[in-house]
Design brief:
Elements: H1 20-28, H2 33-41, E1 45-46, H3 47-53, H4 59-71, E2 75-79, E3 84-88, H5 90-93, H6 96-109, H7 121-131, E4 142-149, E5 160-165, E6 170-173, E7 183-188, H8 189-197, H9 202-207, E8 211-215, H10 217-226
Amino acid sequence: MERWSRDDPQAMKGYGQFCPVAKTAEIFAQRWTPLIIRELCFGPRRFNEIHVGVPLMSRALLVQRLTELEEAGVIATQPLSQGKLYSLTPAGAEMSQLICLMSDWGQRHGQGRIAQEELDPTLLMWGMKRQVDLNELPDHDVVLRFEFRGVPKAHAARRYWWMILRSDDVEVCLKDPGRDVDVVLASDLEAFVRVWMGHRGLQDALAKGDITLSGDKARIAEFKRALRIADQAALKTLYFRPAA
């Protein structure tokens, strides 16, 4: 019977154990892999859409990881006229439970580990868009404008954002869409990140002047409900939109 040596390079790709924890870790615990799976938990994605969620990952490495995950039976691909559509297989979809557990643990124990350079307004806006429960959207458009201060120099050009809440979709714009704005949120970026993540309540941030909200009260209420922004600090669970 052929045996692998511990010095065999092929053996070093895994842990050399039949333990199911080890077998899961061989797939899931690769660098960047949990974040790729996190992106796909929100629905099928094109390559560039996945890369938006992992902007510091090289495109070549993303290609490699996607290939490995497909070989492992975690993701499936569908050819398009240009590129591919990536989605989770049933086995991959079960990993959403791991993603949720990681999110809950990180909210409880990782609040103090957010560094200034990690405050990325693009990831914030992308995260808010995909977390919207379409059932909570009003039956009319609501146009939001975000004005962030305290943005790291690397993202200084992305201080201003617009979001349009529609009855069946959410649109995020870096350029003014030319629509009348219903709600304006001006905020220190870190303060709003912590409110969005549930580490801090909106009421406290408003009282201390870290965030200001202007607009019609009814539109502000719709904004808070759609984006699940709470007045009091509370653990925020991930919401995965049901597949169409």
